[in-house]
Amino acid sequence: MSKKEIQKRRMMSYFIEATNHIIEEEGLEAVTVRKVADIAGYNSATLYNYFENLDHLIFFASMKYVKEYSEALPCYLKGVETAFDKYVAIWRCFCYYSFSKPKIYHAIFFDAYSDYIRDSVKEYYEIFPEDLVAESEELLSMFLEKNIYERNISILKSCVKEGFIEEKDLYDINKMTYLIYYGMLCKILNNKDLYTVDEAVEMTLKYIKKTIQCYSTCL
């Protein structure tokens, strides 16, 4: 890294850490530019030298929680052999971590800044490469995709390769899976049905598996 890049990383880290502090202490909705700047020890104008707006900053701060998921994923995949079992394991891990922190994951994948997520994900990992935990090219590709829809397609393609589903059904399965996941995430955010995290995970996986099984001739 050049001195300029090191300085940029250091300054961004101050604001990201301040944002994380507010999220942990007061919740995501309590984050404001003024609060973050005060805690970081700089003025608001300095913050805007490194982040386009508050949504951009919140996105970067939220990536800390994606790291928790990516670090846990290898344990979920341990001993998994088939593409279908890998697909289910990845969803189990993602559901657990996203349902445990639904506001954070909603902010990353569905809020205002999610329209720019692909470029922002790459930008984040260029600045903080140590946070990109991926043990294979397949997982690396998934982590760098721009949204849930594209991430799911990237791992569903392995199920096509191993013959669990046909390519012609890929996009229908993907759309249904997306709707199942998003529906449960919204239920949790709105405190509907009062599921525990484990209950929400199991119910989501139940319908995700059923979706593939309806299209598969070998499951």
Please describe what this structure looks like:
- Residues 32-51 bind DNA.
- It holds the Pfam family TetR_N.
- InterPro entries: Homeodomain-like_sf, HTH_TetR.
- The chain is mainly α and 219 residues long.
- It has 2 domains: 1-51, Arc Repressor Mutant, subunit A (Orthogonal Bundle); 63-215, Tetracycline Repressor, domain 2.
- The protein contains 11 helices and no strands.
- α8 packs antiparallel against α9 (148-161).
- The longest helix is centred in the first third of the chain and has 24 residues, at 3-26.
- The protein is globular, with a radius of gyration of 19 Å.
- The termini are far apart.
CATH structural fold name of the largest domain: Tetracycline Repressor, domain 2
| Chain-averaged pLDDT | 87
- The number of helices is 11
User: Biggest sheet: strands, sense, closure?
Assistant: none
Distance between the ends: 49 Å
Give me the CATH architecture of the largest domain, please. Answer: Orthogonal Bundle
Assign the CATH class of the largest domain.
Mainly Alpha
Reading the helices and strands in chain order gives: HHHHHHHHHHH
Strand content: under 5%
GO molecular function, one term: DNA binding
Pfam families: TetR_N
Keywords: DNA-binding
Protein name: Transcriptional regulator, TetR family
